[in-house]
Specification:
- By secondary structure, this protein is of the alpha/beta class.
- The chain has a single domain (20-46, 53-184), classed as Phosphoglycerate mutase-like (Rossmann fold, 3-Layer(aba) Sandwich).
- Helices cover 35% and strands 16% of the residues.
- The protein contains seven helices and six strands.
- A six-stranded mixed β-sheet has the order 3-2-4-1-5-6.
- Helix 3 (66-73) packs across helix 5 and helix 6 (125-137) crosses helix 7 (151-158).
- It starts with a helix and ends with a strand.
- 39% of the residues are buried.
Amino acid sequence: MKTRLVFFLMILGLVPVKGVASEEQAWTALREGRAVLMMRHALAPGTGDPGGFDLEDCSTQRNLNSVGREQARSWKPFLESRGIAEARVFSSQWCRCLDTAREMEMGEVTGWPALNSFFRNRGDGDTQTRQTIALVNELEPGAAVILVSHQVNVTALTGVFPASNEGVILALPLSENPTVLARVSPGR
């Protein structure tokens, strides 16, 4: 019972995740290419997607509202204040993730199907998580890396249940049990 309580409190962010570095160490690792930032898209009210969801048609999807767009824009000054002026940004192909990534204005946004939500198709989770790990680990050294995805994807990889617009800095190389260096959000 105690283990379940600690896990639940970790998910809520009330107890630190085991092995978490100081936040400054996490930011240094991200700047130096020894970590990646994986985040949940900004606020898009609701759960899942409506019936008739079409990946190519944003009007059929759950989208960012004005608060969500403001949240996404808050990342740029937040990241810049931590020494990250540009990044390689990879996103789920869902409109709310692409819009979050674009509103951040941190660099060109590349859609990665491995980051797409598997909320409706939970059976795809393990495969997509392994694909995300492989894709990240295959990246060449360079600017900081930001992954914009969904709660289910972040939780499947990290065990962290992120709020909208919250991210985790993960040590590289990624593995099926990655080291979470910090939980971060411009709103914290």
